[in-house]
Each structure stands twice: as structure tokens, then as C-alpha cells.
């Protein structure tokens, strides 16, 4: 069953028939053809399989996880695919990543959402753990969902990532997090994450080493 669903997810991706001066990939989600420009010079500007898993989940579970008019923030948005799909599904999305990725991110978001969405998404800088209260004050920022795809990999900012989840998450916020398991160091992050949040496995894709989690603050998850 895993391999059947993975094949279906991967079928959502297509490539240009002709080689163009700018490298892009295409995706079919939420009834739209989405074109994503990638940059090959950094991790954050490539579409990783975890993003496809999360997009597929959002599209195929839109009744249970109805995003219409919901406040959503994506952390480590990279190329913006997850945020674009959430926007096309009716959410009010704040799309975030490091300053050096915002140019390509803004381009992708604008190209794929302009005049197509109920709410135009907002692209903002978010460096994990830095100026969180200044840029995302707890008193005025309320997110129904935090989305994250492949934010745990070989980088030295896992403490800051946990701090960011903690800062952005209210008592009723739902975290949807697609995680690719690679190395022990990153895997240990899940244990640390569980000191603050209750974690539930929504889907597991062994052939991709990807798990999709739902999380909420400790004691807030409805069974």
C-alpha cells in the first residue's frame, strides 16, 4: 500500500517538455498546475519528497483538515510548494524562510497564487530562534496550523527550530510536520520535540523514510 500511495504522490510531479533557460518543475495539486523554480545552489531551494507528501495529504484530507480561512504559517518553506497548495485550498498563509531564499520563494508564490486564491499569501523572513517576539508577537500572532516539511536535516539549528515551534504554537494550534529520517542526530530531535508536544503519526512511508506527524501542545490533543 505504501508503494502505491508513493507512486500516486510522485505522479503529481512533471517536468518541462523543452529545456528552458530557467530550471523548473511542475506539480498537480488542488486542481492547479503549479510551476516551481528551483535553485540548485542551496538545500532550501529544491522541492524535497517530504513537501510532496504533505501537499498530497492536505489535498486528500481537505474535509478533515479544512484550511478555508484558517491562519497557516509554514516554516522553512524553501520553494514554497506547501504554502502554495495551502493557499489554493483557501488558507491565509504566512510563508517563511531565511532571507537569502526569499527572492525565489516570493517569485514562486506570486506566480502560482496571484488571482487564484481567496487570500494572497504573505512571504516573510524567519530565521529560526531570532527576533521571534519582535517579528511574530505572541499577543497578535495566532496560527491555526504550523506546517513544516523536511526542516530537520544536517544543520546546527535544531535548538532554534524547537524554540520557533514553541513560540509560534498556541494551545489550539495544530502542527503538520513531514519528516525524512536520515541520521541519529536528527532522529533524536523527535524525542526533544516530544518534551513540549504530543505527537501522532498520521502516515508512514517506509519506502521514502518519511513520516507525517500531527502535533499539538502537551495535553491538548483530542484522542
Order of strands across the main sheet: 6-5-4-7-8-10-9
**Count of strand segments:** 10
Cα-based radius of gyration, to the nearest Å: 16 Å
Global mean pLDDT: 92
Q: Structural class, please? A: alpha/beta
- The count of helical stretches stands at 7
Distance between the termini: 25 Å
Q: What is the approximate shape?
A: globular
Low-confidence stretches: none
Tell me what portion of residues adopts beta-strand conformation.
Answer: 25-35%
Please write the string of helix (H) and strand (E) elements. HEEEHEHEHEHEHEHEE
User: Percent range for helical residues?
Assistant: 25-40%
The description of the largest β-sheet is: 7 strands, mixed
Question: Describe it for me?
Answer:
With 223 residues, this protein is α/β, with parallel strands linked by helices. The protein contains 7 helices and 10 strands. The protein has helices at residues 2-10, 49-60, 81-88, 102-113, 132-135, 158-168, 184-193, and strands spanning 13-14, 24-29, 32-37, 71-74, 92-97, 122-125, 145-149, 174-180, 197-205, 210-217. Strand 7, helix 6 (158-168) and strand 8 (174-180) form a beta-alpha-beta unit. The longest helix has 12 residues, at 49-60. The chain is globular. The two termini are 25 Å apart. The model has no long low-confidence stretch (mean pLDDT 92).
